Amino acid sequence: MQKIISHGQPRNLKINCLAAFLMLDSMKDLVSAESYNRTLKQLQLGQHMEQSDCNYLVWISFSGLGNRILTLASAFLYAILTNRVLLVDPGADMPDLFCEPFPEVSWLLPLDFPLKNEFNSFDQKSPFCYGKMLKNKTLTDSSWSILPPYVYLHLVHDYDDHDKMFFCNQDQSFLRKIPCLIIKTDNYFVPSLFLIPSFEQELSNLFPVKGTVFHFLGRYLFHPTNVVWGLITRYYQAYLAKADETIGIQIRVFDTGIGPFQHVLDQIIACTMTENLLPEINMREPVKVRNMYWHPTVTGEVIGVYQPSHEEYQQTEKQNHNRKAWAEMYLLSLTDVLVTSSWSTFGYVAQGLGGLKPWILYKPENQTAPDPPCRRAMSMEPCFHAPPFYDCKAKKGVDTGALVPHVRHCEDMSWGLKLVDDSQEHGVVRT
């Protein structure tokens, strides 16, 4: 459930295109028909491959919409760093939700791609799963001259220590030799890319302000289709365009019972009042946010509360539901101030697209509103929920949130990782 409380003249959003131009330049070597056809033939025959002059990364459409947006951005960045052509599995609805980002060329996976019908069955037991091949010692230095037809990268939340070797520098050296990588993930794994030495310089060149990665990737890649844009503009013009300030509140409830839950409302009110995001009201026992602001505020301001949709539950595979979800993420990104729920990729997308450092609602325990109810995010970056904790050189466990200044543990998930930047002199983050 998302609520947008309006009371700002909407600001003119300025898109910094520097990173976009750099990324476009990095993708300039587009698909070679001859190379692709050769790769296609070898995949069809299941033949071991020789190294190719044109390599590919195939992203499998997987999980909920927020996860898909974050993982596709992660895959795009990885493709740039490894000089690969990114091919996007359209899944059930990607073309219905997003415009193609590259002029005169499609990033959608060609219909004749031979493994397309097998994507749903790919898991850690798949024969060319990288983690499985490492576990079974199928890959040795002596076998590097004979490459598998493709390698499947299983980076889903249930991945094991062998799958996580993907984030080691030595393993990246091997993976560079594979013409076709296929990736399935439900994680925003960008923070751990910043811990791979061979990527360090290129990432520093692309993103001098580390806490802006998803902001630039997201603004460059994800543009609503006309159908979704219509939902956005109609709602914005009807309810938000004339406001002096807008506050977005993104609510994700993990309780399994039937809501609404009073402790969630109590937490939202406590956060917005404590942080002075909303004015106080002349009543002692507010019941609901909407009803609260039928009462006069202490400051005399007039507050309107709007909820774009009433979907209540996540419905991953339903087309109209995902259109509304994408529209709501975008509308939240247009607000001046944002409050988000812990662990929610929906909120991560909104804050990143909008360049907003949100107030994050702590996850309630035992149906009790936490105290304090929320805190300000360190950066607008999403959280990597399932990062590796492994020192590839020392071959032992390590706190990967304490290795470099710009990769820290998340505010909403103590074991997660996120990118931060101590310097805000570039003026990108809206505080």
Describe the structure.
It is found in: Golgi apparatus, Golgi stack membrane. Its EC number is 2.4.1.-. Keywords: Cell wall biogenesis/degradation, Glycoprotein, Glycosyltransferase, Golgi apparatus, Transferase. This protein is α/β, with parallel strands linked by helices and 431 residues long. Helix 3 crosses helix 9, helix 10 (226-240) packs across helix 13 and helix 13 packs across helix 14. 31% of the residues lie in helices and 13% in strands. It folds into two domains: 2-12 and 224-419, no CATH class; 18-209, no CATH class. It contains 14 helices and 14 strands. It has helices at 18-26, 33-45, 65-81, 94-97, 130-135, 169-175, 190-193, 200-206, 213-221, 226-240, 262-274, 289-292, 319-333, 345-354; strands at residues 2-6, 55-59, 84-88, 151-155, 180-185, 246-250, 304-306, 337-341, 359-361, 374-376, 390-391, 396-397, 407-409, 417-419. Strand 8 (337-341), helix 14 and strand 9 form a beta-alpha-beta unit.
Question: Topology of this structure?
Answer:
Elements: E1 2-6, H1 18-26, H2 33-45, E2 55-59, H3 65-81, E3 84-88, H4 94-97, H5 130-135, E4 151-155, H6 169-175, E5 180-185, H7 190-193, H8 200-206, H9 213-221, H10 226-240, E6 246-250, H11 262-274, H12 289-292, E7 304-306, H13 319-333, E8 337-341, H14 345-354, E9 359-361, E10 374-376, E11 390-391, E12 396-397, E13 407-409, E14 417-419
Parallel strand pairs: 2-3, 2-5, 4-5, 6-8, 8-9
Antiparallel strand pairs: 1-6, 1-7, 9-10, 11-12, 13-14
Helix pairs in contact: 3-9, 3-14, 9-14, 10-13, 13-14
